[in-house]
Amino acid sequence: MRYHVTDSGVGMAITKRYVELMGGTISVESKKGRGSAFTVELPMELTDEEHVRKQELPIAKANLTGVKVLMAEDNDLNAEIAAIQLEECGMQVTRAVDGEEVVEIFANHPAGTFDIILMDIMMPKMNGYKATMAIRSLDDRPDGHTIPIIAMTANAFAEDVQASLDAGMNGHLSKPVQMDEVVKTIARNLNR
Question: Which of 18, 12, 26 lies closest to 157, judged by CA?
Answer without folding.
Answer: 18
